[in-house]
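Hi V.,

Quick status before I head out on leave. The structure for the redesign project is tokenized and pasted below; the design run finished overnight.
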């Protein structure tokens, strides 16, 4: 029985020592080199603080192989890593480090000045130095014996609704179960090439990292700037013969709207996964038109359930305004819907909160028992023994196939003119209109009105006319605004919070 994710690296390095593990803009690192660099980094951490074990180590990350090597080095030292964007504003970095109180911060040399400018910075270890440390195999082996599969692998910080970030703690067993399920369900092999889009401080990157370590796939870290230039992005995918992508839904939408596939195609893509936001048939149909032979998979899951808890392999046609299902539970996970009275929903069409139990459920929020207790709860359907469930705050319904269909956030349900409204339903209707590339709907509580903002080439009047054909009168937006573009957050999702801040700044 495997209890440590480092087994993936060691087995693959023994099997494919000369194979390229990671490609970034500057480096091509073999699996054997990856192992030695990680062990050197781990040895450096042990030498600095021999007694430290099961402690957090912050890692300032860029889109480089250094991030992954640092993660693995932290794990070799018997500790767990907390990725932080190296470009994060100074104030937020200070906030995260004050909450984390890490034993060390690992950073590349170019980011050292940022850390040194903080009022209270933990001890810093420079990546370029620690990878040249002498490997202490004996110390590494002794620490390895003490790690069990309930010990953490990482902490990932997400934005809380209060503005205070939440650090989700994820253990070895959760990452191993996710990786084993992905590898076996989708038959990944060593001759495939993964095109990484997701930043390493975002949970979806966990799939990329550990799938490649387990299977011997090569990970190509795609430069972020290329996502602004679709033709160059496709050239890059072809140059590196990328066969597999696990990308944010918004990235797929941007490429679909760019009309780039009429000029150029990614020649080697076979497996296409999307996650993070609702996917509509309109955008999926564009991809399937040009790449009908590829496998398409919709994945769903919050950070708190170790990346993914449901999946749907696309196996039928969808209308442009039809949401793509998020499917059924991943292996060793149970996903079910509860109504407002904690009763199980089994009938199709009725919406409820998505609740998750199984090995993917995280250990909770770091040093935050109050917020942990609010959402990591005893299963309301079981009072006989301890049975932990994560309440996602997401709303879904069952369709006629028994598949889950994502509807929106619980906090996006609004009461307007005496009617309960799902804002996601308005977005779905708007996205289906010709000329609409992306849209965001929210409720202006102060003025009691529904606001719809969109990007596209159609006008506000034709859009409203189209919405009148699809929505009841009480669901029609009172304000429709066209924007040149939407802001996106670092995870590649539309930044809804920023959009609302701009709107309220102009209207209140």
């Amino acid at each position: 029985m495997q209890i440590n994710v480092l087994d993936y690296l060691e087995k693959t390095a023994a099997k494919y020592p000369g194979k390229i593990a990671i490609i970034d803009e500057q480096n091509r690192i073999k699996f054997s080199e990856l192992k030695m660099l990680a062990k050197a980094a781990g040895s450096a951490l042990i030498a600095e603080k021999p007694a430290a074990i099961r402690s957090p180590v912050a890692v300032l990350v860029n889109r480089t192989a250094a991030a992954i090597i640092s993660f693995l080095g932290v794990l070799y030292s018997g500790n767990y890593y907390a990725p932080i964007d190296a470009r994060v504003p100074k104030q937020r970095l200070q906030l995260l480090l004050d909450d984390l109180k890490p034993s060390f911060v690992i950073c590349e040399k170019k980011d050292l000045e940022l850390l040194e400018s903080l009022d209270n910075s933990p001890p810093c270890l420079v990546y370029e130095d620690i990878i040249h440390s002498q490997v202490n195999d004996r110390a590494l082996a002794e620490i390895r014996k003490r790690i069990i599969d309930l010990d953490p692998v990482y902490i990932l910080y997400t934005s809380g609704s209060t503005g205070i970030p939440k650090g989700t703690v994820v253990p070895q067993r959760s990452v191993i179960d996710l990786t084993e399920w992905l590898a076996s369900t989708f038959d990944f092999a060593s001759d495939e090439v993964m095109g990484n889009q997701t930043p390493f401080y975002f949970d979806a990157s966990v799939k990329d990292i550990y799938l490649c370590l387990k299977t011997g796939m090569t990970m190509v870290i795609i430069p972020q700037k290329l996502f602004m230039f679709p033709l160059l992005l496709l050239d890059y995918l072809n140059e590196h013969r990328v066969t597999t992508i696990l990308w944010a839904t918004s990235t797929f939408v941007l490429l679909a709207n760019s009309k780039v596939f009429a000029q150029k195609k990614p020649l080697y893509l076979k497996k296409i996964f999307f996650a993070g936001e609702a996917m509509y048939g309109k955008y999926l149909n564009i991809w399937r038109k040009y790449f009908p032979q590829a496998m398409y998979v919709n994945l769903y899951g919050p950070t708190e359930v170790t990346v993914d808890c449901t999946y749907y392999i696309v196996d039928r046609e969808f209308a442009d305004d039809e949401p793509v299902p998020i499917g059924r539970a991943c292996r060793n996970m149970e996903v079910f819907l509860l109504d407002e009275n904690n009763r199980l929903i089994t009938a199709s069409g009725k919406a409820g909160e998505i609740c998750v139990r199984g090995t993917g459920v995280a250990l909770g929020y770091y040093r935050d028992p109050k917020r942990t207790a609010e959402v990591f709860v005893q299963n309301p359907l079981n009072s006989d023994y301890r049975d932990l469930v994560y309440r996602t705050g997401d709303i879904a319904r069952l369709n006629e196939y028994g598949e889950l269909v994502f509807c929106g956030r619980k906090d996006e349900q609004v009461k307007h003119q005496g009617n309960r409204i799902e804002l996601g339903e308005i977005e779905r209707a708007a996205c289906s209109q010709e000329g609409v590339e992306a849209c965001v709907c929210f409720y202006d509580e102060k003025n009691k009105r529904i606001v719809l903002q969109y990007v596209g080439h159609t006008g506000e009047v034709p859009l409203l006319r189209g919405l009148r054909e699809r929505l009841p009168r009480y669901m029609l937006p009172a304000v429709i605004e066209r924007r040149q573009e939407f802001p996106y957050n670092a995870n590649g999702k539309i930044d809804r919070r920023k959009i609302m801040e701009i709107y309220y700044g102009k209207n209140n």
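Above is the designed sequence. The mean pLDDT is 93.

G. will cover questions while I'm gone.

Best,
W.
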